[in-house]
Write a structure and sequence with these properties.
The complex is a heterodimer of chains A (about 350) and B (about 550). With about 350 residues, chain A is of the alpha/beta class. Helices cover about 30% and strands about 15% of the residues of chain A. Chain A is built from 8 helices and 12 strands. In chain A, a hairpin with a 3-residue loop joins strand 6 and strand 7. Chain B has about 550 residues and is α+β, with helices and mostly antiparallel strands. Chain B has 8 helices and 26 strands. Chain B is elongated and about 135 Å long. The chains are: A alpha/beta (about 350), B alpha+beta (about 550). Chains A and B meet through strand 3 of A and helix 3, helix 4 and helix 5 of B.
């Protein structure tokens, strides 16, 4: 009798343990599934702008190209990146190594690379074009590669670099964009539902002044220096003759080189990039307009293009014949995805 | 492979690639890549073409949407030095050049041209959207169609150049993506940007035109040629023989031909030395070919990449060339251009055309397109050869309109043998509105190259049979007669300074004016209108209480 009771007790404890284990793991699955759909975006875009002209501003082009390189490496395709470079450094006649832009004086990393597509170059990088790209109000003949075709489920990364001051950013030494204009452009984007969440990074002197005036929801902003501080450049290269990169973006690139598409690093790690000891200026950030907790926003939510796969249990009937252009009829067994052309 | 039953036969397409390497007299080495796709299809038919195989889809859609008959676009970095390097196989001016013949079904050519330049700027990552009416011209005699076409109504031709356009890897990347094999197989693996842009001259172009497939021209097909010309300069001048290899030039060797190519060949120009004394090419090949190109019969060593034995046992082909530089044939036609004068008000454009033929004279067609802000005085136009006046037999001049269109000058000039012909015209510089200046106005403003087109007498009889199998480099310009060949020469672009205002002036003027107004006028105004009143000092407390009591009593205050 005791043996049977003992056995049933053992079985019962085993069963209860199993049940709790199962419920715990199912809670885990639900948690994972919940995290899977937490960010709510389906596609990623990036707008990377360098606003400086002339050879001594080599570092601003290197800044933008290093962010471009990271973003491409983590999965955002060229068709979803709008790259604006105000001057050409790689094929500049002063460049002792043509078709290269280096980030470090050891010349290990050519951030220009062999596969780069610049959408706006030279004189096309103006305040008007930048605002038109953001708000989508472009002339009808503008090609697709020059448009920001985002929708309400797009996460957009916007990176600006150049020379700036308290409340403005200089474009090509001849015009400026103010923080009020930028905030209004983002509000227009919000009203038109052109973004789901937006990450704004700026690497200029007094960069924090540029995000002071934002008032639209779902914006997170980072800057390389506070109001009243200058952002400093990293180190010059004696062969090329100019400073190669700015400090903040240099350490940002170092941080991003460790990120891979399945990385779980979040925004709080990004805020820690380049402390005052390395940057000399104090990087700032603003998260009060961001509805989620920054700790739950992954780096790859903005810098990468990590596709979410939704599993469905419905069945779709593919046996109906699909008419082809030349008149012949296929048996519909091939599925043609909606075309994404070059 | 099972044949697919379909009502429309699949159009035939064909892809060929070739590389020509030619050591130059100055010690430099000239490499010219050509990739040609021929496709027997009709873009202009009602049915839209939907199945693309070798022909790139982006260009096919451009042709059908904008009803293009011929399209020629080139991006060049550097200037071709004719006197040192001879004639190029495919000439191109520095910067970007685009000329297009539209079909005669197009009703609004200017509107279509504007849309086409915008679409091309997206395809090639270049700022071609800066092409507008202020730098587009409609040549009346130059730039005849290079493909088939009976209609020569020049209303359907548009020509524009952007001399300031920079060429870099971002233009090479989309260009490489148009090739059927991309940059993964065949000759295109040699196209590495770090080597290509570290050169004296780099030019990439796309040419689209309809061509005849046979002698009677019963069937036509569309031809797409992608060309890339590059001149590498010598880094190690030494005595004896100069040495070059594929690996040294391109930092890569070849391992296979493009599997989609029907022909993949490398030609090395060994004309100067058929016996093999001055020249040494390894690995050796027994294939030789002769071709009539640029008025001269040249001999070439041929390497056929579709044959496996070309790659040898190491499965890789690295051509090594050793040669002694020899004298070069002087080019028959050569041109220069420069700006004379001083100051920022007036100047003079001089164009010199050299005819180096000892006894033959030939006519040339000169096309000049000058922006509106250099106001040409056409009454000062002079054409002189050997000191005497040389009247052109045909002049077409369209004056400019401020901010609307540029000057267009086309002339047919007969160049006497062994002479220099000088064309001069005076101009005045205009003052632009302050918003029209570029962000870097002190750099100067560019004037596009002049184009000189001519049928130059040739030493050897040229081959006029266009349908025979010819290497690509000798079959680009159509050859209509045996005694001459077509040549196009581009001059240098000009860089002129326009009178530039001081852009800090408005800020300084506002500060100064406001200070003067505030100090000067303000003081004067106060002096004239201020009136002075005597004021009693405020009374003490006792007096104030007394005044209040006196007011209550109705008595005047103290």
């Amino acid at each position: 009798f005791l043996g049977e009771q003992c056995c049933t007790m053992k079985i019962l404890t085993l069963l209860s343990l199993l049940a709790t284990h199962l419920s715990a793991s199912s809670v885990n699955i639900e948690e994972n599934a919940g995290q899977f759909f937490s960010s709510g975006h389906t596609n990623n875009w990036a707008v990377l702008v360098c606003t400086s002209r002339f050879w001594f501003n080599y570092r601003h082009v290197a800044n933008t190209l290093s962010v471009y390189r990271s973003v491409k490496r983590l999965g955002i395709p060229d068709s979803h990146i709008v790259l604006m470079l105000a001057d050409d450094m790689a094929c500049n006649h002063r460049n002792p190594k043509p078709a290269t832009v280096f980030s470090h004086k050891n010349m290990e990393l050519n951030v220009y690379g062999d596969d780069v597509e610049v959408d706006y170059r030279g004189y096309e990088v103006t305040v008007e074009n930048f605002l038109r790209v953001l708000t989508g109000r472009l002339p009808p003949s503008t090609p697709r590669s020059k448009r920001l075709l985002s929708d309400d489920r797009s996460n957009i990364l916007i990176y600006l670099t150049g020379h700036g001051g308290n409340g403005f950013l200089k474009f090509q030494d001849s015009e400026e964009i103010s923080n009020v204009e930028l905030a209004d452009a983002f509000e227009q984007m919000w009203q038109k539902r052109r973004y789901n969440e937006l990450l704004f990074i700026i690497d200029t002197c007094q960069g924090a002044s540029m995000y002071e005036r934002f008032y639209s929801p779902n914006l997170m902003a980072l800057a390389s220096s506070q109001v009243g501080e200058d952002s400093l450049s990293h180190q010059p290269d004696l062969a090329i003759g100019v400073h190669l990169m700015d400090r903040y973006t240099f350490y940002l690139l170092e941080f991003l080189e460790d990120i891979h598409p399945s990385s779980k690093a979040n925004m709080n790690d990004l805020f820690k990039v380049c402390p005052k000891s390395q940057c000399v200026s104090t990087p700032g950030h603003r998260t009060d307009l961001f509805l989620r907790d920054p700790g739950s926003a992954l780096i790859t939510d903005f810098f990468g293009s990590v596709r979410k796969v939704e599993i469905t249990m419905e069945t779709i009937n593919l046996t109906e014949p699909i008419q082809q252009v030349d008149g012949s009829v296929s048996d519909g067994s091939s599925v043609v995805p909606p075309g994404v052309h070059r | 492979m099972m044949p697919v039953p379909s009502s429309v036969p699949q159009p035939k397409d064909d892809f060929q690639e070739e590389l020509v390497i030619r050591p130059l007299h100055s010690g430099d080495i000239y490499a010219s890549f050509q990739f040609r796709t021929l496709w027997e299809t009709d873009f202009m038919r009602g049915n839209k073409v939907s199945h693309y195989r070798l022909f790139p889809k982006s260009l096919g859609q451009v042709i059908s949407k904008f009803s293009v008959r011929e399209l020629h676009i080139s991006f060049t970095q550097g200037y071709w030095r004719t006197m040192q390097w001879g004639q190029p196989f495919l000439p191109s001016p520095p910067g970007a050049e685009l000329w297009v013949w539209f079909q005669d079904s197009v009703t609004d050519v200017d509107g279509t041209w504007k849309e086409l330049t915008n679409v091309l700027s997206g395809i090639f990552c270049a700022s071609l959207n800066f092409i507008d009416s202020t730098n587009t011209v409609q040549p009346s005699a130059s730039f005849k169609p290079l493909g088939i076409g009976n209609v020569t109504d020049h209303r359907f031709l548009r020509y524009a150049t952007l001399p300031r356009e920079i060429v870099c890897t971002e233009n090479l990347t989309p260009w490489k993506k148009l090739l059927p094999c991309g940059s993964k197989a065949g000759l295109a693996v040699l196209l590495k940007s770090e080597k290509l842009f570290h050169s004296s001259f780099h030019s990439q172009a796309v040419h689209i035109r309809p061509v005849c497939q046979d002698w009677q021209c019963k069937t036509t097909s569309w031809e797409l040629r992608q060309t890339l010309n590059v001149v590498f300069d010598l880094h190690t001048p030494g005595q004896g023989k100069l040495e070059w290899s594929l690996f040294k030039m391109f930092s890569r060797t070849l391992t296979e031909a493009c599997p989609l190519a029907s022909s993949s060949k490398i030609y090395i120009d060994i004309t100067d030395d058929p016996q093999g004394e001055q020249f040494e090419v390894s690995p050796a090949t027994h294939l030789l070919s002769q071709a009539m190109v640029l008025g001269d019969r040249r001999t070439f060593s041929v390497y056929d990449l579709t044959q496996q034995i070309t790659f040898g046992t190491v499965r890789s082909l690295n051509l090594l060339i050793r040669w002694k530089s020899r004298d070069m044939l002087r080019p028959l036609l050569h041109a220069e251009r420069y700006v004379a004068g001083y100051g920022l008000q007036t100047g003079e454009i001089h164009t010199l055309m050299y005819n180096n033929h000892p006894y033959r004279s030939f006519p040339v067609l000169l096309l000049d397109s000058v922006p509106w802000y250099l106001r040409l005085y056409i009454h000062t136009l002079t054409v002189t050869s050997k000191g005497k006046d040389n009247k052109p037999s045909y002049i077409h001049y369209q004056p400019s309109k401020d901010r609307v269109r540029p000057h267009l000058l086309e002339m047919l000039v007969q160049l006497p043998p062994n002479s220099v012909t000088e064309v001069t015209v005076q101009f005045e510089r205009a003052l632009l509105k302050w918003t029209e200046y570029t962000p870097d106005p002190n750099h100067g403003f560019y004037v596009g190259s002049s184009v000189i087109s001519s049928l130059v007498p040739s030493i050897v009889a040229m081959d006029t049979n266009s349908t025979r199998e010819q290497p690509l480099f000798s079959s680009f310009f159509p050859c209509k007669e045996e005694s001459s060949y077509f040549m196009r020469v581009y001059t240098e672009p000009l860089l002129v300074n326009l009178p530039t205002p001081d852009f800090s002036m408005p800020y300084n003027v506002i500060c100064l004016t406001c200070t003067v107004v505030a100090v000067g006028y303000g003081s004067l105004y106060n002096l004239l209108t201020r009136s002075f009143q005597i004021e009693e000092p405020s009374p003490g407390l006792a007096k104030r209480i007394a005044n209040i009591i006196r007011k209550m009593r109705g008595v005047p205050p103290l």
